[in-house]
Specification:
CATH class: Alpha Beta
Bound molecules: 6-O-phosphono-beta-D-galactopyranose
Helix content: 40-55%
CATH architecture: Alpha-Beta Barrel
Length: about 475
Amino acid sequence: MKIDIPANFLIGAASSAWQTEGWKGKKDGQDSYLDSWYKNEPNVWHEGYGPAVATNFMENYQQDVDLMREIHLGAYRTSINWARFFTDHVNLVVDEEYAQHIDDVVNALVEAGVEPMLCLEHYELPQALTDAYDGWSSREVVDLYAAYAKIAFERYGDRVHQWFTFNEPIVPQTRCYLDAVRWPHEQNTKKWMIWNYHKALASAFAVKAFHEGGYEGRIGCVLNPEMAYARSSSPEDQRARHMYDLFFNRVFFDPMVKGAYPQELIGICREHGVWVDPADGDLEIIKQGTVDFLGVNQYYPKRVRAPRYAWNPQTPFHPEMFYEGFDLPGRAMNKSRGWEIYPKVMYDMAMYLKEHYGNIPWIVSENGMGIEGEERFMNEQGVVQDDYRIEFIAQHLRWLLKAVEDGSSCEGYMLWAFTDNVSPMNAFKNRYGLVRIELDEQRTRRLKKSARWYQSLIDDRVLELPDEEGAK
Ligand code: BGP
């Protein structure tokens, strides 16, 4: 079976600053949240690898850009490392050396014909702002972020025309303050909600500033909605799905796309003492600062059922009160990552956006497959024969293209990731890249088989699937 890829459908790849850069040239006071976590809890990072060296993108970026050029990549998203962008985060003194590095990366991409996309925060909250204000707990950080956004637009806006305010803004506080599974292991559901809220507000300020500045292009946010599926058609399981969607998807979709929080969310949060009291005028900013488009990171389905046990009143309030995870028997799995593989998630998310969010323009900003021990699949020339990745991308793209055919306004697909890079805790355990990174001193790069296949997709604009798959 052959499927045509529309001529204007973007095919790119993504990464982030902290997962690639390494610490070369980093100055005192420039630790991000990730750097602090790595320093404070090194034992949970796979084989001790972490952000310290990463892929040494600081020194090796040109090699990556050359490889992007070689496979005709359409676009590359990375982030500005907010923690490194200033030498003084409170008085906003720009680190010219680091800012120049971003200039160099952007210029190299433009020169190579690869569209640069920049994200203002991919978990790189400066530790200095946590020390001074407890991070997003404080309204001050919203203002400092808004000021940072303006400086970034002013500096790079002439060459960068697609911006993202955050990558997965819900994630750090969910892991740290809701589930408390990550350093600093502080459980505080109200703080989780305050961080969600301040980030939505900060995003709105940045969007407004971008529009008011009259820059060319558009601005959105990269979200990680989890397409939620109920175990069964029972009203109880359906309600569990609804609640999961409300607390983890709509909590960002609604303010960012519709400009207001769902009343139901506000009501339940109030009931449990975890709602936030917005400052005067803030809700108006959220209303005015809705995004132009969305990036959607999509890896796996979230399956839920109604909870089987009554909530323990001694346990702090958690939305899990309303749902329980459910493992579908027989599901396909990526065992390296522990994530279910269900390519139809792309189609269902596309239809969800079409139905509930006015078919806002969007791209798949991340999708991909992290596999452990990829050296097993190297041929004699040292090229990883990652047929499983090709199959994974093909199946997901197939559903996405079907959604486009059915009227979804999805405009592109960006693979996570261009090169192998550092995952939170898993470090280099699971490899995601089209490009293999050796953990030698140079961090040697080599294209995998999937990179050449990706190139053929870009060049021929045809997705070919084995016939038996097409018949399924
Ligand atoms: C997304 C993040 C990425 C990346 C990816 C893969 O949630 O935006 O930064 O890490 O997931 O997940 P992981 O690295 O945990 O395997």
